[in-house]
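Dear colleagues,

As part of the handover before I leave the project, I'm documenting each prediction I ran so the next person doesn't have to rerun anything. This entry is a single chain, and its sequence is reproduced below.
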Amino acid sequence: MTSASLEVLVEPFKEDSPGPHVMAVFERLSQSGFVVDMGPFSTTASGELDELVASLGDVVAAGFAAGATSIQTRIETA
């Protein structure tokens, strides 16, 4: 198995005030069992590569359903 990290940048961005679109992404990743951290500009999740990739559709859909106008993702293997 390959460990990886997923970085998700959700817009619109408001400093110190994550909106429901950001929280939806955070909660979906947390519910999937990943180690999740909400940083000042993006949310990151750590887990197995195949599980992170499989979760992307649900994560992106949750963000847009909650009001996101743009979602950027980046995955890196450890």
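The chain has a mean pLDDT of 95. The chain has two helices and four strands.

All the best with the project,
I.
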